[in-house]
Amino acid sequence: MKTIRWTIALSLLLGGAVEMARAQEAVTDEALFRDAIQTLASDEFGGRKPLSVHEKLTVDYIADRFKSLGLSPGNDGSYFQPVPLLTVGTQIRKNEIAVSGRKGSATLKPLSDFILWSHRTDRNIRLAKAEYVFVGFGINAPEYGWNDYEGIDMKGKIAVILVNDPGYYDDNLFRGKNMTYYGRWTYKFEEANRQGAAGAFVIHDTGPASYDWTVVQNSWAGKNLGLYSDREVLAFKGWLSNDATKLLFDKAGSSYDQSFAAAQKKGFKSFTLALRSTIELTNDARIENSSNVAGLIPGTDLKDEYIIYSAHWDHFGIGITIDGDSIYNGASDNASGVAGLMVIANRFNQLPQRPRRSILFLALTGEESGLLGAEYYATHPIFPVAKTVINLNMDSYAPRHRTRDIVLGGAGESDTDNYVIEAAATQGRSVRVPASQTSGGYFRADHFSFAKAGIPVVVASGGNDYLDPAGVEEQNVTLGQRSNYHKPSDEYHSWWNVGGSLDDIYLLYGIGLRLSNDGYFPKWNEGVPFKKVREESLK
Ligand SMILES: [Zn+2]
């Protein structure tokens, strides 16, 4: 009897000790987390724009922190991976596009009718009397039995492309309202380039694009950062406003409405519009190195296999003044994700023994300009893609209150879902799958570049079943209902609640820790386009 009592007392005592140790860890982690956000989001760091004077300050700080947290240099003795970024200033002759069609001519003006940019490095480009081809959604997707480019030679021609995918209009096509990658504008340009087109315009439409024309104007006016590729065939990429598109079809003597309806049906045939333009561009191109920051915890018996934790360090720098402030501090977006890397690195570093697999920590550049640092890593990996087990990415992880639920993005894409569900269970949290993702949010963060390279990913974070709804309400009011997105007011405040941030960071830590020791390679599910890419890379 006495012995049993003692056992219970002892286990209570031990349990209490474990709880206390956990609380201790959380205190250290929270201090580490807040300190990194506060530093990176300070005015001194100037909004962390790639290639600016503030880049060096930022990447040096991250490398220093990696070093002090016990990480080894991740890239052949260095903490840095140079990322050649291409900056192109493009001018169109006369600052207009003249079109002549079967039913007359018209002149299109930049900003109001179209937005155009180039990722080519040649100084002068001339498209002489180029034809326009309406290619519907501009999709070549064998797994859906769909090819808008069937039998069309795009050489020297301008592709005019619908935004989103056919599922937006017909639930029985593609994945219905759940947008596939074929619906993203990034895909449209990639495919037009593969088809050898001379130029590509995506037609803007507020519904299926999920943002209005002013967002297109603000996002692309003067936007010219890209990755250099010697396979860039397109002289230009751009957007056409809905009104300008209708005008073009009129001048060609074609009905836009009928063409639009036809493009939504399986078996649609792309066609050449009776319309031509001569477009002359002058490019002022420069290539300069930005940096991804890489820190490594070498594994033991499986050290040649890698788990990647990532977060982008860049933001918009100093820009248009809003409410008297011109520094885009990016505290939430994404000083918080980089701070998450520090917390996870600290956890791994405190382990009594090293993990079997190696853990790579990547702070990535150029996310805000189109996932550039991630894209560069995925196509110029430090360690083989085939030996890369998983990517766990953090973007905008604070402020965040604690929740009972976790929202799983890209559910059903791979068997990493089980890892999320089980890691959530150890936190006493449940996993929820969002009803639909019309806006294609899944394709808008760095993890997507890893997925495209075939590397399985996890996209999971706290939902809205809050432990303290009143606290959330109070914080939202103070924050101004999240209106700080991509604004100078995205700043760090000591009153931020980060309880949910730490929970979500520990969730990713738990998944990576388990995979670092169990030796399993997660797999994409049947019918997911990345599955084929993965299988090719493993050959
Ligand atoms: Zn952002």
If you had to describe this structure to a student in words, what would you say it looks like?
It is a single chain. 34% of the residues lie in helices and 26% in strands. The N and C termini lie far apart (63 Å). It is globular, with a radius of gyration of 25 Å. 46% of the residues are buried. It has 14 helices and 21 strands. It folds into 2 domains: 26-85 and 286-538, Aminopeptidase (3-Layer(aba) Sandwich); 87-285, 3-Layer(bba) Sandwich (Glucose Oxidase, domain 1), CATH 3.50.30.30. The longest helix has 39 residues, at 2-40. Helix 1 (2-40) packs across helix 8 and helix 8 crosses helix 13. The chain has helices at residues 2-40, 53-68, 185-194, 206-209, 213-220, 242-252, 256-263, 331-350, 372-379, 416-426, 447-452, 469-479, 499-518, 529-538, and strands spanning 72-73, 80-92, 97-101, 104-108, 114-117, 124-134, 140-141, 146-147, 158-162, 199-203, 225-227, 236-240, 271-297, 302-312, 317-322, 325-328, 357-364, 388-393, 405-409, 430-432, 457-462. It has a 17-stranded mixed β-sheet that branches. Strands 7-8 form a two-stranded antiparallel sheet. The protein has a two-stranded antiparallel sheet with strand order 15-16. By secondary structure, the chain is an alpha/beta fold. Bound molecules: zinc ion (ZN). The site of zinc ion has 3 residues, from loops.
The low-pLDDT segments are 1-12
- Strand percentage lies at 25-35%
User: Roughly what percent helix?
Assistant: 25-40%
Separation of termini? 63 Å
Mean pLDDT score, rounded? 90
Please state the oligomeric state of the protein chains shown: single chain
CATH topology of the largest domain: Aminopeptidase
CATH class annotation of the largest domain: Alpha Beta
User: What is the CA-atom radius of gyration, in angstroms?
Assistant: 25 Å
Tell the overall outline.
globular
Please give the number of β-strands: 21
Largest sheet at a glance? 17 strands, mixed
Q: What structural class do helix, strand and pairing data support?
A: alpha/beta
CATH superfamily of the largest domain: Zn peptidases
- Known CATH architecture of the largest domain: 3-Layer(aba) Sandwich
Q: Count every helix, treating DSSP H or I runs of 4 or more residues as helices.
A: 14
Q: Ligands bound here?
A: zinc ion
Structural domain count: 2
